[in-house]
Amino acid sequence: MSQLSIRKTIGILLGLVIAFAQVSTTRAADSSLDLTFGNGGKLTTDFGISDDEGYAIAVQPDSKIVVAGKSFNGSNFDFALTRYHRDGSLDMTFDIDGKVTTDFGGPDFGNAVAMQTDGKILLGGSSSDADNCNFALARYNSDGSPDRSFGIAGKVITNFDAFAACDGLAIVLQPDGKIILGGYSSNDIALARYNSNGLLDTTFDTDGKVTTDFGGLGDVAYAVALQPDGKIVVAGTSSNDSNNDFALARYNSNGSLDTTFDTDGKVTTEIGGPDDRGKDMTLQ
């Protein structure tokens, strides 16, 4: 399974620039574009080289909008982050020009963004080198500068299996400040949990990392949610060698599978087609 084949996009990707549109809340009945936003309800942002794509979006408490994804630097892709005012104009207090890129050293893809209560921004995804694919996580201060109290100069990489394909696709913050990044590694659902300083949380399955095999050749977590009791729910897809089915797993707070959930902590559901993928979820 290629990394590009499982990318989830939020908004509208147009050519070589990050692009999205805002719908008016005052005219919800006809879903017309909000003409006070950007240029007639739409905007694009060019990072300067080529192939800029937005995969995730978050809205801050002050209504500023953060879009995260990737940008090509001429030789590789980097994490890309941009912030807008509520009217769609770039926020020039965010790294001077409203845009930030982060290079982990290889092809880097930023897929999931989360806002901390202190205003810091987390961007999770993956980074690859000649030998390994790694989960990648970066944290930024509210002005777009790297948070150097996090990991090494604001960046963390986590390897699950040498030479295996991987991607971090979903992020969730615990009330205690710990960070969970979910995705896949070597055809299995993969989770990593970090302390607030970026170090792996060794109370989570002893090494901070968990992989879960549903029995097929391609298990991927697209969404992660946290229950009020601290249990972790993961949604995605599992391949049974001929079809992809919805996949759902629940973990205890220590990273072990919750065996009160369908006896083994895992559930797959066939919707009826050959390619069933759970891309998002909500908890009742």
Estimate what percentage of residues fall within beta strands: 35-45%
Mass-distribution shape: globular
Strand arrangement, largest sheet? 4-5-6-7
| Cα Rg | 19 Å
Poorly predicted ranges: 1-16
* Mean pLDDT across residues: 89
Structural class: mainly beta
Number of helices: 0
> Could you give the order of the helices and strands?
EEEEEEEEEEEEEEEEEEE
How much helix is in the residues?
under 10%
Q: Ends: how far apart?
A: 32 Å
Q: Can you count the beta strands? A: 19
Largest beta sheet, briefly?
A: 4 strands, antiparallel
Describe this structure in words.
By secondary structure, this protein is an all-beta fold. About 0% of the residues lie in helices and about 45% in strands. The protein is built from no helices and 19 strands. The protein has strands spanning about 10-15, 15-20, 40-45, 50-60, 65-70, 75-85, 100, 110-115, 120-130, 135-140, 155-160, 165-175, 180-185, 190-195, 210, 220-225, 230-240, 245-250, 265-270. A four-stranded antiparallel sheet has the order 4-5-6-7, with no helix packed on it. Strands 8-9-10-11 form a four-stranded antiparallel sheet, with no helix packed on it. Strand 5 and strand 6 form a beta hairpin. The two termini are about 30 Å apart.
